[in-house]
Amino acid sequence: MTDSIDREALAAARESARPRYEEFSSSGLKLDITRGKPCTAQLDLAEDLLVALKPGDHSTEAEGDLRNYGGAAKGVLALREMFSPLVDVPADQLVARDNSSLSLMHFCVASSFFRALPGGEKPWAGEEVVFLAPAPGYDRHFSVCEELGVQLRTVAMTPEGPDMDEVERLVAEDARIKGIWCVPKYSNPTGITFSDEVVRRLAEMPTAAPDFRIYWDNAYAIHHVRAQHDRLASILDACAKAGNEDRAFVFASTSKVTFAGGGVSFFGSSQANVAWFLARDSMRSIGPDKVNQLRHVRFFGDTAGVEAHMEKHREILEPKFDAVATALDADLTPLGIASWSDPNGGYFVSLDVVPGTARRIVQLAKDAGVALTPAGATFPGGDDPEDRNIRIAPSYPTTEELDTALQVLTTCVILAAGEALLDA
Ligand code: PMP
């Protein structure tokens, strides 16, 4: 990127950016493109969830009456069958729970400290535990580890997934490394989908820790932005084929499908891991909200119903991602001062700016009334070693708000690049 910077063009762009920035700063903007939240129109798509159950509709053939305790240890079968092909986990190995897959991930990490995992000799309590953190990645994965006393070791992300040479080397030699965080499809924030080769190598690689786990957070499995969808190989199949059946924990949820707090989540894994999970989980809750699970079954009808629903999300999201691509391209491509992703799905555009300027850009944007995800948030400890990555979340604002926020953003990118490259 920096090789292709046209310094004269940048100097001229900076001159016109200065008054623009002053104008934005004095116009009292209050815009926010920080978190990947669905917009109101997306939430409206699921409005009928509120009336999907009528009085008397509270039973299934497999489980009977769902209003009481008990009867569906893994969650409602019809829901597990509906989502099984979407998350690539056999229904029998898929557990449905209440909203928040993140809470399931937190629970799995925490429980591993107190109860040995299948394949493990003992629980992790008292041990030094390390997870690999491909970065840029999802900040809340990193916070779970920080909260629970798990150290993070950063590994680079490539367009195909984590840098597998590095991952293989580290896990082979260090038994303290017990896990790796993965958002394998439409990754948060880079939008990439792991290649078949990466999936295979993750499944096959020898690990020094016998209880090593891949935290396969397939949060964006069905969240397409473009008509062209990415395809992800099945991690459970790859692990089983490699003789490492118990290696992967799969997570997913409907947080950005229906309602964030009123949705359902999923945990999928080998039979042994599912038994481990259920044994731990039964100590904290007698059972999930099966009525809400049935509500989701009624609302979607079948797997194709879920896919049709996600197509409506896609139609709302695509123009917003187009707006980001168009604005960045128009303002920044001629200057060669940034590069960015244009993903087929997920919720983010990952913007790489001139090294050393990401923090400055976020501060300039904030001073002009536009909130961006804090620079560095996509790296463990909030520390981007090159200070160059910014995560853009275009879903929530209206198109007009997004257009303005993008103008402010590109103005700030130009100003900060000018400071770093012309004033230095
Ligand atoms: N994983 C990833 C990668 C996410 O981006 C998000 C939401 N931003 C979550 C998990 C949170 O999911 P849930 O609402 O199911 O806890």
Explain the overall architecture.
With 424 residues, the chain is α/β, with parallel strands linked by helices. It folds into two domains: 2-33 and 307-421, Alpha-Beta Complex (Aspartate Aminotransferase, domain 1); 57-301, Type I PLP-dependent aspartate aminotransferase-like (Major domain) (Aspartate Aminotransferase, domain 2), CATH 3.40.640. The chain has helices spanning 7-25, 40-44, 77-87, 101-112, 139-148, 164-173, 196-204, 235-241, 271-281, 290-300, 303-332, 358-367, 399-421, and strands at 31-33, 59-60, 64-65, 94-97, 130-135, 151-158, 161-162, 177-182, 213-217, 248-253, 265-268, 339-340, 349-352, 370-372, 389-392. Strands 4-11-10-9-8-5-6-7 form an eight-stranded mixed β-sheet, with helices on both faces. Strands 12-13-15 form a three-stranded antiparallel β-sheet, covered by helices on one side. Strand 2 and strand 3 form a beta hairpin. It is globular and about 70 Å long. The two termini are 18 Å apart. The model has no long low-confidence stretch (mean pLDDT 97). The structure holds 4'-deoxy-4'-aminopyridoxal-5'-phosphate. Residues 36, 100-102, 138, 183, 188, 217, 219, 253, 255, 260, 265 line the site of 4'-deoxy-4'-aminopyridoxal-5'-phosphate.
> Helix and strand string, N-terminal first?
HEHEEHEHEHEEHEHEHEEHHHEEHEEH
Regions with little confidence, pLDDT below 50 for 5+ residues: none
Query: Total domains, how many?
Result: 2
What is the CATH class of the largest domain? Alpha Beta
